[in-house]
Q: What sequence folds into this?
């Protein structure tokens, strides 16, 4: 249930709503915007309660039910776009933020070469997996803690924020010591213990869409992060599983305007895992920018042929630099810049 307060309401009136909700055993989340103050009333049985319980309280303008399963990620709760700030880099504003780097952290040398390759053309956040969720237990699973240490070293040397994946709920505090943004991979989008721990950490997070999940399920998963008071949530479309087998996944470009319409959260696009082949990545990246994505997450490797993981879909430094130049006029045509 969403309780909208009257213009000019005061903290006493807002507190009255909060206390009434608490007395009924319900949870609350506040969105105290500059022109609108909203209290979300959360609980499994709010559907059975009359909206009048809150409508009669002083300072309340309107009480409405959110009919969708997701509440805090919805525009009903927060009408204005959310901005996530990473060391002064804003995601969700006019600038299209490009995050790039290898699939997995392999060595310090590899990371250094990757940063040089991505920074100059205009990427501003380095990606690199230290913990890799793999379909097979016999595949390379990343350098783990040693990989985090390499990321931290390169972050220091080049003064660039880093994003890395966390796969185990028990590792959230460890990984958040080294990373500026935590990544929840597609396979973990509905790992609710992981989401809850990341929510509590308050660390900025990129929530990838599960490849068999609907937009509604994706946004409802985001509510797990938001419900713990973590507002630094960025969504990432990375392709879904369809009957089409000419690409690794099918990039759901349409989910970008859908998410923008129903949610205030920024959404970025990973064309690399969707395409599965480097030759398809530029076209998908351009389509994402044209469709309104707030950023891109692109795999770039100093030497894709030698990559331990996802080499076939990784761009070379020169392909990446060319793509960045090609993206600029597209960004401009939709009122953005890179
Ligand atoms: C990745 O970003 O390297 C990755 C494993 O992505 P996804 O979870 O989207 O498959
Ligand atoms: Mn990868």
A:
């Amino acid at each position: 249930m969403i309780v909208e307060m009257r213009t000019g309401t005061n903290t006493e009136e807002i507190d009255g709503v909060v206390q009434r909700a608490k007395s009924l055993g319900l949870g609350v989340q506040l969105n105290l915007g500059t022109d609108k103050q909203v209290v979300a009333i959360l609980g499994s049985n709010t559907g059975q309660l009359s909206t009048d319980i809150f409508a009669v309280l002083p300072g309340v303008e309107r009480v409405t039910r959110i009919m969708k399963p997701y509440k805090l990620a919805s525009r009903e709760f927060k009408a204005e776009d959310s901005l996530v700030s990473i060391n002064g880099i804003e995601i969700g504003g006019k600038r299209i933020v490009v995050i790039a780097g290898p699939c997995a952290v392999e060595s310090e040398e590899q990371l250094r070469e990757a940063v040089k390759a991505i920074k100059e053309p205009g990427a501003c956040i380095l990606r690199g997996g230290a913990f890799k969720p793999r379909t097979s237990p016999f595949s390379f699973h990343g350098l783990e803690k040693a990989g985090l240490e390499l990321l931290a070293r390169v972050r220091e040397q080049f003064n660039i924020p880093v994003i890395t994946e966390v796969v185990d709920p028990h590792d959230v505090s460890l990984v958040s010591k080294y990373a500026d943004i935590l990544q929840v991979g597609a396979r973990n989008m509905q790992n609710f213990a992981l989401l809850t721990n990341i929510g509590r950490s308050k660390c900025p997070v990129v929530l990838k869409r599960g490849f068999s999940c609907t937009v509604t399920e994706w946004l409802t998963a985001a509510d797990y992060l938001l419900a713990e008071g973590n507002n630094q949530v960025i969504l990432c479309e990375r392709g879904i599983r369809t009957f089409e087998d000419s690409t690794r996944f099918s990039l759901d470009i349409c989910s970008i305007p859908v998410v923008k319409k129903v949610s205030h959260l920024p959404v970025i696009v990973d064309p690399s895992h969707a395409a599965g082949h480097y030759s398809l990545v530029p076209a998908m990246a351009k389509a994402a920018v044209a469709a309104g994505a707030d950023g891109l997450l692109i795999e770039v490797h100093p030497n894709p042929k030698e990559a331990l993981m996802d080499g076939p879909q990784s761009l070379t430094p020169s392909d990446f630099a060319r793509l960045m130049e090609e993206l600029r006029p597209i960004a401009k045509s939709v009122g953005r810049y890179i």
User: Anything to note?
Assistant: The pocket of phosphoenolpyruvate (ligand 1) is lined by residues 103, 129, 185-187, 208, 238, 270, 273 (CB under 6 Å). The mean pLDDT is 97. DSSP finds eleven helices and 14 strands in the chain. The first helix runs from residue 11 to 23.
